[in-house]
Specification:
Layout: E1 3-8, E2 11-17, E3 22-26, E4 33-34, E5 45-50, E6 53-58, E7 65-67, E8 70-72, E9 74-76, E10 82-85, E11 88-93, H1 117-121, E12 135-138, E13 152-156, E14 165-167, E15 172-177, E16 181-188, E17 191-198, E18 204-205, E19 208-209, E20 215-216, E21 222-225, E22 228-234
Parallel strand pairs: 3-4
Antiparallel strand pairs: 1-2, 1-11, 3-5, 5-6, 6-9, 7-8, 7-10, 10-11, 12-15, 13-14, 13-22, 15-16, 16-17, 17-20, 18-19, 18-21, 21-22
Length: 236
């Protein structure tokens, strides 16, 4: 299980297992990790965990968030990454490592050396679907062990690409517009789940705004992300 180790000036203060899908960090008492220091914003950052992956997002904090010395807005966490918030540090540790070459999650990074989502979508040979209103990027195909899950897809219902379909054959499919609103659909052994990742507005499912938790998807559910409506459906 992944965890964060909170320290200050080399002194370990706390160890936090990442058992929640959304873990907030900030100065206010309602945060999952409260750091009572004026250098920390009331709601400073959030860690979103989906399956075995964790993403760190700075919530427009006053003093910013660093990872390994670089300012970030959005960052896919890797083993031994060090998150800096003022004088405090959070070290991310996990026993699970992504296979070599599997790093399409880079679209969610915002560090100085990371490429933007737009740059990635323009790379020759990329499997991303470039659209004016919605960016789509999928993770590598899951192993055969998960093939018992019914095949599914989403179909765009509005916008210039209305009618186009995206097969959900990957472990994680990222939908939305980076910097505005991003969500992921996770293909799990017991079905498909949608989770909010980035943006102040949460996705809308069948006319109802979702919260920070993962929500299961049912056949013919209608999802709205970044102004684009799409229908989730199971394939016969």
């Amino acid at each position: 299980m992944a965890k964060l180790i909170l320290s200050m000036d080399g002194l370990v203060l706390k160890e936090i297992p990442l058992t929640k899908e959304r873990l907030t960090i900030g100065r206010k008492p309602h945060n999952d990790i409260q750091i009572d220091n004026l250098a920390i914003s009331g709601e400073h950052a959030v860690v979103v965990s989906i399956l075995n992956d964790s993403f760190l997002e700075d919530l427009n904090s006053t003093n910013g968030t660093l990872v390994n010395g670089q300012p970030i807005k959005k960052h896919f966490l890797r083993n031994n990454d060090v998150v800096e918030l003022g004088k405090y540090k959070l070290k991310y540790m996990t026993d699970l490592q992504p296979p070599a070459g599997e790093f399409e999650k880079t679209m969610l990074q915002r560090s100085g050396t990371a490429k933007t989502a737009a740059e990635l979508r323009l790379q020759p040979g990329s499997d991303a679907m470039t659209r004016s209103n919605i960016g789509v990027r999928s993770q590598p195909k899951p192993p055969a062990a998960s093939s018992g899950v019914p095949e599914a897809a989403v179909q765009l219902l509005n916008g210039p690409n209305a009618g186009r379909e995206l097969d959900l054959t990957k472990t994680l499919t990222t939908l939305g517009k980076p910097g505005l609103q991003v969500a992921v659909i996770a293909r799990r052994p017991h079905g498909y789940f949608i989770t909010h990742v980035e943006g102040r507005q949460f996705p809308v499912l069948n006319g109802q705004m979702l919260d920070a938790q993962a929500h299961p998807l049912a056949d013919h559910d209608v999802i709205e992300i970044a102004g684009i409506k799409m229908e989730f459906f199971l394939k016969a």
